[in-house]
Amino acid sequence: MLTSAQMLAFQRDGYVVVPAFSSPALCEQIVAFAKDELAKQAIPIEFEADTRYPGAPESRTAEGGATARRLLMATERSPQLLAWATGEPLKSLLIQLLGEGVTLSQAHHNCIMTKQPAFSSTTGWHRDSRYWHFARPELVSAWLALGNEQPENGCLWVIPGSHRVVIDVNQLDQYQFLRTDLAVNEGLLSAALPVPLVQGDLLLFHSNLFHAAGRNTTGMTKFSMVFTYRSADNPPKAGTRSALKPEIPLA
């Protein structure tokens, strides 16, 4: 269970780290599974070119374009991954944050992230809610570090408290990334800090929290697993991408 201090930290900062949430043995099992899926090119896979991030390769045939970025639909790839994402002890933490009736969205995240040293594009400052369509932008993502995460291999950076900040559309670029060339954004950007994680650590973060990630400059692939959840009274809007895939209630 999250402590009262951890609950307050999430409410204040928009994220909280739960140390040693999963065992190193489990993490290594998932990494081995992910490497096997990559070797088999087991679809669906999102490649670097598919991200359309600023600076990403223009096509899969361009340099780095065919580098795998995410093994998508993790819930359908393995009963072990589904059990981790929908069972205890994660379920209890999510109920604390979202209330009873927590539901897993299969349309967003639901993946093993594979930030590779061969090529990895930079992810600019953004809120996940920029392209999600729910009644409210109040979802929680659970990010499991399958290995150590540091700035050198592209760990997440966050702007604490930014989930509560009202942003004008002019502060964002055409892709809804926070513009780094505007004086009005300097205060937010100056508060940014990295979130280093040790293998097995769990990062819980709000869908409105501004976060970013750099490139992997090491010689080893960084593996992470991430799923996203909503409360019972925050359904996806009909006809949007968020409603394209069936959701999974955490019974």
How would you characterize the overall build of this protein?
This protein has 6 helices and 13 strands. The chain is α+β, with helices and mostly antiparallel strands and 251 residues long. The strands form 2 sheets. Strands 1, 2, 3, 4, 5, 7, 10, 12 and 13 form a 9-stranded antiparallel β-sheet that branches. The protein has a 4-stranded antiparallel β-sheet with strand order 6-11-8-9, with no helix packed on it. The protein is globular and about 45 Å long. 39% of the residues are buried.
Structure summary:
The chain has 251 residues and is an alpha+beta fold. The chain has helices at residues 4-13, 24-39, 74-77, 79-86, 90-98, 186-190, and strands at 15-18, 45-47, 68-72, 103-105, 111-115, 123-126, 140-145, 156-158, 193-194, 202-206, 211-213, 222-230, 248-249.
The N- to C-terminal Cα distance equals 18 Å
Structural class: alpha+beta
Global mean pLDDT: 95
Principal-axis shape equals globular
Tally of helical segments = 6
Strand content: 15-25%
Largest sheet: 9 strands, antiparallel
